[in-house]
Every structure is written in structure tokens, then in C-alpha cells.
Amino acid sequence: MKTRPCILATLMLTLAAMLCAVQARAEDGYDLWLRYHPLAPEQAKLYRGHAAELIIGSATPTQAVTRSELQRGLQGLLGQALPLSDTITRDGAIIVGTVASSPLIAKLQLDTQNLGGEGYVIRSIVVDGHAATAIVGRSDIGALYGAFHFLRLLQTGQAIDHLDLRESPRIKLRALDHWDYLNGQVERGYAGTSIWDWWKLPDWRAPRYTDYARANASIGINGTVVNSVTSGATILTPAYLEKVAALADVFRPYGIRVYLSVRFSAPIEIGGLKTADPLDPHVQAWWRAKADEIYRLIPDFGGFLVKADSEGQPGPQDYHRTHADGANMLADALAPHGGVVMWRTFVYSQANPDDRAKQAYEEFKPLDGQFHANVLLQTKNGPIDFQPREPFHPLFGAMPKTPLMMEFEITKEYLGFATHLVYLGPLYEEVLSADTMTHGKGSTVAKIIDGSLEGHTLTGMAGDANIGTDRNWCGSDFNQANWYVFGRLAWNPSLSSRAIAEEWVRMTFTNNEAFVKPVVDMMMGSREAAVDYMTPLGLLHLMSPSHYGPAPWDASESEADWRPVYYHRADRQGIGFDRTRTGSNAVAEYAPPVAARFNDLQQTPEQLLLYFHHVPWDYRMRSGQTLWYELVAHYTQGVDDVKQMRETWNRLDGYIDEERYRQVAAFLAIQEKEAQWWRDACIAYFQSVSGLPLPPGYAPPQHSLKYYQSLTFPYVPGVSSW
Ligand code: GCU
Description:
By secondary structure, the protein is α/β, with parallel strands linked by helices. It has helices spanning 3-25, 41-48, 61-78, 103-108, 140-155, 207-218, 238-251, 266-269, 281-297, 323-334, 356-364, 425-432, 445-449, 480-491, 497-508, 513-534, 564-568, 592-599, 609-612, 627-650, 658-690, 705-710; strands at residues 53-56, 93-98, 120-127, 130-137, 164-167, 173-177, 223-225, 257-261, 303-306, 340-344, 375-380, 404-409, 460-464, 574-575, 615-616. Helix 12 runs antiparallel to helix 15 (497-508) and helix 14 (480-491) crosses helix 15 (497-508). The radius of gyration is 27 Å and the shape is globular. The structure holds alpha-D-glucopyranuronic acid. Alpha-D-glucopyranuronic acid (GCU) binds next to loops.
């Protein structure tokens, strides 16, 4: 009789405890990699000895946010609040700041020379007989970056007792480009709508803006272009500039500058002028006055990003002027204030019948040396348009007198939108480590954009953001890794994408090795899987006009070079775009040794084969199999890889919170379905062209070609309709 209530009570208590545990673990991805969840008890105990008190000022806004981030982070990770102190009272003090702001730090005499404005040192030291950790920058921002690095060490379970770290960014401008419109839509956005609530700005500054700034600062991003490169001119009107200024105020303590995309014809549209000719003195005066107006509101404004004479956007060529004329005019308006122009090289003309891959180089290369000192040319990683795989852009290394900055796409416009798990680290790394040979062996793209090879100090890397109003910011948990890896590589383009993936997994999910290793392996293979099930062997641009799903047959677009058939050139005899000397001669835009390699069918890496060559279906590949066989094999491999990813994930149930686990599982199921669709539709189409039977052992497409061609998808996300 007695035991019964006792068992019941115990049962209820257990149930309540389970519920609490589940609730405590419930996660929606909002916290990104800054979750600061309690570490394993033994790990936390180890760290507590080195995190006993915090000595940090709060005299400036940046010092204040550094302090609150460390307090928040350490309390979350270690499970207890850290006392603040002015002096060292025990072992385990963390001393944070700059030589200028703290006499205690000045006394330490750490070597902070050559750190630059954003660098820092983290050092284990002994002061007055006490073990301590110093996190020291030459500026408050340097100290903030150091604080985030220190937190990362704890988040990823690394030793912190003998630290001797020294870091400064290799690239100066590390910016996110938002393709956001003032009506809230996001061009190629798959994570909801724009996080900028323009309507309520400047009065309402959503807390999310601060969290955005924290996330960016934690990975070293120091710039944000808040509107799309194809926006109208309204952003430059006084009412909107006030809204932009409010955002800039929120971001400033985190070292983030605001930039704007500007429409070249703004002087006509909002300035009442009759022309936007860059050589017209009224136009020049208008932009000067506009720059002055902006800097009155935003003293640390970063500058302008410009898409001109590209895909219907206005530009200097409307007035028979060059890109240099246009960029320099804007640069001169910004120069007195220290601003820069990021002028995009993504230009091609539908009036030009020549290979689209060649056009940016032809347009810009002759202008080398003509740009003013505060102009950077923002260049996409490849010559076409952010495809799953392209060779590096031939402009890298071809304009030694001009700083070229990298533009990567973080949003997965061509890589499965929100749902496909595709970690872009390997793509970025492949491009950054590509050898342009323009200054001899070792002339990597990384060394061109970090300025070291050509002696530029103005350097930059931009990433087209994947951020929106979804609770998890990026449309899926794994897409957060693409924002993360972009920031880390912009800080140091030589980092390994695998090491970055591992950091991210540990911070975002768990330090449990049984989870970390398989997930990192899965991420590292995911980009190649997508290449295989979408566009293997150097194919590209096989998607439908909405950029959703396969349509290699499509010839519906108004312009030739928007059609998949323009790119793959498949016919009864073979497939691929001949860009050799006897073809479009796009190879000639690369340095001679690279051009020679790409020109030679035997030497071209097979992963770029059909980008550079038109090859017969029965061409013998290195494996000894025919091209047709290999094409089918790659498509099939891509699907098998996704199946494998699903199996890996299925084995990992229970290691992380249910919410994120289940969404990843559901998205992987979508990815498998769509990978199969890509494979089957492409094989069905290419088989209809080649007329060849499927190699033995390979399953035929699940449906007829007609079926795939009949599919339509209204309301595809990311396609703006303003
Ligand atoms: C791609 C993309 C467009 C974008 C353009 C650009 O073509 O589909 O939405 O505007 O790139 O980068 O300018």
C-alpha cells in the first residue's frame, strides 16, 4: 500500500525531469554557432580554473559588447557567472582590452606590433604570481575578435592553459552582400524575407539586428551591403538613409560598416537630372553631394557596390563611357570620406555573340591601371555564374594594377536552395587554392585577392548572403555553415574547409566525437555529390529558368546564353562547349601554362572536361570507360552519395536536439528525391540526344523524358516579382 504513491511520485518526477530536459534542449537554430550551451561537466571544470574572473573595461560601446559577450558565453558554457574585477585577485583571470585602454595591459608589454587595426593576441601569462589569460588587440575591435576566438576555443573543447595565439585578417573588406529589396523580398533568398524591417526603421531597431552583428563579428565579417545589386534608387533618398543610419548605429560597436548598392541612374531617378553620364559635371556634383549627405548621417559609411551595364542595369556604357569612367566618378565622390567602390565585373552582353565566359575579361582587362585607388573590382569566383563547379575566373591575376575582390555566393541559388545539404567550404577552397600561374607557380587566387602577390593593400571578399527571417536565419541548419565558412575564409583564405566544418559542427551541435567525425565527412563530400547529381564532368547551367530543378532541354529563355542548350551543346556525336583555341578560345584568357593545360583534352581535369571541350560520347575517359558511361555513372553516384548521407544521419539520432535532427532528416529526404529527379531527367534527356543505351547495371530513369519536361512549379522561392 505504501509503495504505490511513492512509485507514482517517482514516476511523475522522472517524467517532469524528462520534460524539462527536452524543453531545455529544444532548439530552433536561432542561436547559430553562438549557442553557449553548458559544456560537459568535466570539461567545464577544467576550464573554470582558467576563467575565474574577468578584467575588462566598458568605457566604449565595443568594450561594452565585448564584456557582455564574454559574460554571456562563459556563463553559458561554464554554468556560472564570472565575477568582474579591476585587478587580479586570483589565478584564472581573463584580461581583455588594448594597451591604450588598460594600464594593466600596458604593463604586460605584449608584442602588439604589426597586428593591424583588427588583430589580436591571446596569451597565457603570469602576472603578480597569478596565472592569467590576456586577450589584447591594438583596437577595441581587435579585442572583440580575440574574445570571440577565446570563446570558440572553449566551445570546441580545446586546451586553454598554454595559449600563444596571434591573429590578424589577411583580407581587409570582409562583407556580406544582401540581395534584399525594400519591399522585403530577397533575390535568390530561400530563408524567408528580408531581415531588415525597413518600414519600422529607424524607430524600431529589432533585436535581431544585434544578433546579426554578433554572429558576423564572431567570424570577422566587417561589412554589410544591405540592399540588392539590382535595387532601385530609393535607398538613397533622405528617409531611407535615416533607416540605413539606424542599422549602422546597431552594427558599429561590432566593427561592421554599412555599404549600399547604388543604381547608376539614381541622379535621373531621384535627382531630377537629365543624364547619369559620369563625365557630366552636374552628375559628378550630384554624387558628391549624395556622398556628403550619407557621411553626415553615417560617418563610417563603407561605400558603394555597383552592378552596372549588366543584365539590364544602367551604367556608364549608356553614355559610351567605360566601366573605369563610371567607377572613378563614384570613387571620387567617396574618396574625401575614405569610402570605396566595389564595382562588379559580372557583365556580359546579349548583343555580343561571343562566348559569354569570355566577356568580363574582354571588358575589364584593357582597363587595368585606369581605376582610381579606392576602387575594387568585385569578381565572381567563376566566369559564368556561381555554378556547382566552374574553373576560376580568368580575371584573377590578369589585372595586376587593380585590386580584385572575390564574390562567392552563399545562398544556394544553383545548389538546391534551402533544403539540399551542400557545404560550400570545398567549393570556396577549390577556387582560393587554384593556381592562376600568372606570376609563376604558386600564384593562387587566394594570394591575388589578399593582395600579397601584386602588392595591394585594399583587398576584399564578399559573400552573397543566405540570410532571411526564418528562425534559423538560413533556411536550414546546415546552411548556417556556409555563412560561417565564408567569414572564416575571408579572415584567412588559407584555412582548410574541413577544419572550419569541424569547428562549426562542434559549436552548432555537439563536441561528441561520435557525431562530429561522420557529420564533417558528410559535409565534406556533399558538394561533390551535388556536382554529380546536377552537373558532372564540367557541365553547368542545366537548370530550369526559375533555377529550380533540371531542364537541360530548355530553350525557352529569350536570350541564348540563358539557355541550358547553349552551355552543354549536346548532339548526336557528343557533348560539351569547345573553348579551346579552335573553339571559342576562352582558354587564351588564362596564363599560358594554364591555357595549355585546359586546351589539351588529355590534360584538362576531367571534372572540367565538358566546360572546355566538346567530346564524342564514345571518348575514352581515364577510367577506360566511355564518356557516356562515365556521365551516367557520375549522375548515379551523386544520388548514391545522398542516400549515404541519409544513412549517416539516421545513425545519429539522439546526439542532438529532436527539432533540428528531424528537420535535417526531412530535408535530406527532399534532397534524395530531388537528386534522383536531377539524375533521371538529365539522363533521359542526354540519352534522347545520344541515342545510346544505358550502360549495363544502371537503372533507367523512373519516368519518361516527356514527364520531366512537363513539370512546372509556380511560386518558386527566390524569384522576385516586384
Ligand atoms: C545571377 C542571379 C541574379 C543576380 C545576378 C547577379 O544571375 O540569378 O539574381 O542578380 O546573378 O549576380 O547580378
